[in-house]
Amino acid sequence: MKKTLILSKEIRNYRDGYHLNSKYWxxxxxxxxxxxxxxxxxxxxxVLSDACMYKKSNHALIKFEQGYLQEEFLLHLFSIxxxxxxxxxxxxxxxxxxxxxxxxxSLWFKSFSHIFFDEVWNLxxxxxxxxxxxxxxxxxxxxxxxxxGLAYWIMGDGSLQKDGKTLILHTQSYxxxxxLILSKELNEKFGFMSEVILHKKIYFVIKFNSKDALKLxxxxxxxxxxxxxxxxxxxHKTPFTYGV
Length: 244
Hints:
Layout: E1 4-6, E2 14-15, E3 18-19, H1 23-31, H2 37-48, E4 52-56, E5 59-67, H3 71-81, E6 91-95, E7 104-110, H4 118-124, E8 125-128, E9 131-134, H5 140-144, H6 147-157, E10 158-160, E11 167-169, H7 176-190, E12 195-199, E13 203-208, H8 213-220
Antiparallel strand pairs: 1-6, 2-3, 4-5, 5-7, 6-7, 8-9, 10-11, 11-13, 12-13
């Protein structure tokens, strides 16, 4: 793995002349509106994908990061969550070696910790000694994933195959058992025929075959960001440019 440098290492300790731990900002945080249903759905979809969460000052925060090819998508995420972040703009990781030396490798931002994110945290994380573990609970998809959340999960982890209809959800960070739970509940809730398959002889991922293309297309298309439209399964045979 090539070495990288975080150009914007951390959020500055001051904003608008006040320290972030000051009474001014702490009172401001208490006055902000709760997450809308839409933002909650998006947060769940992104944590199912590649967003991660941490606990700080007894409350949770969420961190988003995308590769440079998905810059527009990351900027979209920042635009809708910026009221819950002290960052003025996303940070950038810069490649130090190779053909892309000096260029952006990925972009990231994180929210501030807040009780509003605790609900999402509790859906995914459990205490394990001095650490927190991300796990998939039975009922997560059935009770909490919406069409919008699924669309954001696919924008983060989905990979449309060469036929333009088969889609792989890259869930290799989860165990085989967790993938089976996810696939089963996706099928039961949305009527898919997804299956868990072995990927690269090591990992387990979820596969939606071409029979799910129409249903996937109709469910996620209204929520897909313009820069990610290439991940929408096709419903007609048209020329297709493969992309991940």
